[in-house]
Amino acid sequence: MSFAELHIEVFRWINDLGKHYAALDPIAVFFAEYMMYVLAAGMLVYWFTRSNQNRMMVIQAVAAFVLAEILGKLAGQFYFHNQPFAVLSDVHTLIEHDIDNSFPSDHTILFFSVCISFLLVRKKEGWLWLAVAICVSLSRIMVGVHYPIDVATGALFGWLAALVSYWAVPKLTFIKQLLSFYEKVEGRILPAKKKSTNF
Q1: What is the distance between the alpha carbons of residues 186 and 178, in angstroms, rounded to a whole number?
Q2: Could you tell me the pTM of the whole model?
Q3: Contact 155, 108 (CB under 8 A)
Q4: What is the chain's alpha carbon radius of gyration, rounded to the nearest angstrom?
Q5: Could you say which of 1.20.144, 2.40.360, 1.10.10, 3.40.720 is the CATH number of the domain covering 3-186?
Q6: Pick from 84, 92, 85: which is nearest to 22 by CA?
Q7: Which of 11, 27, 54, 78 has its CA at 20 to 30 Å from residue 144's CA atom?
Q8: InterPro entries annotated for this entry (predicted)?
């Protein structure tokens, strides 16, 4: 069996899960379409805890996503294929999607770059975020809009970008200066509550 045939077989095995287990379809759609709102909410919660560590983590996550997305766009210039539902027959398609280059998966890039950034800083719940990233990636195959190679490449780019960002961003003086300036402005607009000393 060639790599291309194996690749299609793996896609079919994951995509056909919904045909055999219909209860998985709404779960796959939720992860594929709406989990990004949960991710955005998580980033906002981390940011507004007003913890310097959490805020630097969110900045690293954003930087990682930008870097990974650049890598993804560059890769897309060298390799091109349309979504599975546009090429293969009998694809279990659960969401609407434009037909364009599906390589690599932008959703996977987003979730792996951000969730790995969380994992590197906050290891306890970071594993939960990693599980979310994996579920989102698999869901993109289950709903019929990506091949395994799309999500695998997106995951690789996201992971590498998160590692680079984790190492590089805290060393950038201008990032620290911008964060300090933001916190001064925020402190004037939204003063932090003083902790009570009464028992």
Answers
A1: 12
A2: 0.91
A3: yes
A4: 20
A5: 1.20.144
A6: 92
A7: 78
A8: PAP2/HPO, PAP2/HPO_sf, UPP_Pase
User: Could you count the other beta carbons within 10 Å of the beta carbon of residue 6?
Assistant: 11
Q: What angle do CA 101, 28, 46 make, to 5 degrees?
A: 90
Contact yes or no for 34/94 (Cβ under 8 A): no
**What does the alpha-carbon distance between residue 91 and residue 147 come to, in Å, rounded to a whole number?**
11
User: Tens digit of pLDDT per residue, the chain (199 long)?
Assistant: 677 788 899 999 999 998 889 999 999 999 999 999 999 999 999 999 888 899 999 999 999 999 999 999 999 999 999 999 999 999 999 998 899 999 999 999 999 999 999 999 999 899 999 999 999 999 999 999 999 999 999 999 999 999 999 999 999 999 989 999 888 888 888 776 654 444 3
Give dist(CA 51, CA 160) in Å, integer: 25
Q: Which residue has the tokens 């779960």?
A: 27
So where are the chain's domains? 3-186
How many angstroms separate the Cα of 182 from the Cα of each of 56, 58, 121, 155? Answer: 12, 14, 21, 32
Question: What would the two tokens of residue 180 be?
Answer: 């300090």
Instruction: Provide the H-helix boundaries in 21-97.
Output: 24-29, 35-48, 52-78, 84-87
The letter for the amino acid at 188 is R
Across 82-119, b (16+ Cβ under 10 Å) vs e yields: ebbbbeeeebbbbeebeeeebbbbbbbbbbbbbbbbbb
